[in-house]
Design a protein that fits this description.
The protein has 392 residues and is mostly helical. The chain is 83% helix and 0% strand. Helix 15 packs parallel to helix 19. The chain starts with a helix and ends with a helix. The N terminus is likely disordered.
Length: 392
């Protein structure tokens, strides 16, 4: 009897963890082939930059309506649809014949991943409820592992001179099979029930406008974290190479350190959150991220800078998982609706953060411009109590 009671949530946890991993795999599978795609289409730097905007724009558009889609179809079906659409959208990325075709393919690609992102996080919230303890950070850790595996496989394919038009369709088949087999035990629509809102007289639940402000605050927390993540991805290597004079190999260590630290932090974050609570962990993480990055930038030394980027990744590792979990548990708000609203705001940081930092860098230099993420993660310290309010 005990085994029967425990087995269903265990199977659901495995299924949603597979979904997070597949999301990471899909999102990065094509990234190591970007140079070949650019070369095959004869695109310049500016044209390729325009094309690359397609994916984040697709995500930003899709997450706005995914809450309604989940309400209609359920988070299980929406996760699977988004995953299959994302895997299939790899094919036109490899077959694009000009800039317009590539841009359109990336819009579809980003939209599919945006839909899957919101739906699988809603599933993750439901599984957390069944377990009664934090699990979201570990799920996001497996997403990070998926991105790493996809990067390694894609790099190996590029090194072996596997044609892009063969690599991406093959990846589609593999990912679709993994999704079909690994995610068959996702929770059904009963898991998408709206968290009960206690009577207003108890003072335990904010009214409608209060919930909107709460979701806005959580969205701002996500934005503060994602601006920094985008900055590390887009600017850390440039800072090390151009500002500190490192070689091309060393320049990549900044983002590598950040990415590895985020993965480790997420895989271990659930235990830390369970022991100390989300507010304390986010506040400690924000101080670690801000202090580490500030020291690394102020030292003007490559080793210190890499250490600072690494500490930044460790400090913000649990911000997104905790924020999405809190958004999915706001009383009186469907999980997917809360997550979609927070995601729409937060992912604006990934879309707009790096260009803003580039604009600031033109005026004051890249070193000072990277102080923007320092200030924003410091703001998380002040806004962190929203995670406890939402979860409460």
């Amino acid at each position: 009897m005990v085994t029967e009671e425990i087995a269903p949530p265990v199977r659901a946890r495995v299924a949603v963890t597979v979904a997070f991993t597949v999301h990471g795999l899909i999102g990065v599978t094509w990234v190591p082939r970007i140079p070949q795609i650019k070369e095959n289409l004869g695109l310049g730097e500016g044209a390729m930059g325009v094309a690359l905007l397609g994916a984040p724009v697709g995500v930003a558009i899709a997450v706005r309506f995914t809450g309604s889609l989940v309400a209609r179809l359920g988070s299980r079906t929406t996760t699977l649809l988004g995953g299959f659409a994302g895997a299939l959208s790899l094919i036109p990325l490899g077959l694009a014949w000009n800039l317009g075709a590539l841009l359109f393919a990336l819009l579809l690609f980003g939209a599919a991943l945006g839909v899957m992102d919101v739906a699988m996080n809603a599933q993750g919230v439901a599984v957390e409820r069944d377990y009664g303890r934090p699990l979201m950070s570990g799920m996001h850790g497996w997403f990070s592992i998926g991105t790493l595996v996809a990067a390694l496989v894609g790099s190996a394919a590029a090194h072996a001179h596997v044609p892009v038009a063969a690599h991406l369709p093959a990846a589609t088949v593999v990912l679709a099979v993994v999704l079909l087999v690994g995610c068959r035990n996702l929770l059904d629509r009963s898991a998408d029930l709206v968290p009960e809102a206690p009577p207003a007289s108890t003072g335990g639940d904010p009214p409608g406008p209060g919930r909107r402000w709460l979701l806005l605050t959580l969205g701002i927390i996500g934005l503060c974290s994602f601006v920094g993540e985008g900055a590390m991805a887009d600017w850390s290597a440039i800072y090390l190479r151009e500002n500190l004079g490192t070689g091309p190999g060393t320049a990549g260590l900044g983002f590598a350190g950040c990415a590895v630290a985020m993965t480790v932090g997420r895989l271990t974050g659930d235990r830390v959150v369970a022991r100390f609570g989300p507010v304390r962990v986010m506040r400690a993480g924000s101080l670690l991220a801000a202090g580490g990055l500030a020291f690394g930038l102020a030292a003007r030394d490559p080793v210190a800078a890499v250490a600072g980027f690494t500490l930044f990744g460790l400090g913000v590792a649990v911000v997104a998982p905790v924020t999405f979990s809190a958004a999915g548990n706001v009383p009186g708000v469907p999980a997917a609706t809360g997550i979609s609203r927070v995601t729409a705001i937060g992912y604006g940081g990934l879309l707009g953060g790096p260009p803003v930092i580039g604009f600031v860098a033109q005026g004051v230099g890249l070193g000072w411009a990277l102080a923007v993420p320092v200030a924003l993660v410091g703001l998380i310290f002040l806004l962190a109590p929203a995670a406890a309010t939402a979860g409460g």
